[in-house]
Amino acid sequence: MTLPAFDDLQVGDTLPPLALPAINRTTLALFAGASNDHNPMHIDIDYARKGGMPDVFAHGMLSMAYLGRLLTQWVDQRRIRQFNARFTGITHLGDEITCTGKVVQKFEADGERRVKLEIQTANQAGDTRILGDATVAL
């Protein structure tokens, strides 16, 4: 992995997008096991329907994990200084999620050159599901 050069980055530059396959039941089951989050809204269609949903839907933390992958495919995880997310919509079965990010600020702090990023996930229709930000030391 080649670390992006602080001097080569400009505000408005984008990270390489991360496009993921459609969310399916297998993905949800595997994530439930890996995260120990067995909330039935994500894995039990009968329970989800009783809760007023048409079907199960993705864990919010699954999409946040995808954003983490976006960041760690750009820089080593040891370079991440801060990572926040706000859930803005539900990721449904069949949604094809794309994670994107862009540089919104360059600055120095604690003797490090850093960039602040706006990051997000969106489905195939362009509907935002998570808005977030991250700070990375370069």
TrEMBL record:
InterPro entries: HotDog_dom_sf, MaoC-like_dom. SUPFAM superfamilies: Thioesterase/thiol ester dehydrase-isomerase (SSF54637). This is Acyl dehydratase. It comes from the Bacteria. It comes from Pseudorhodoferax soli. Residues 23-115 form the MaoC-like domain.
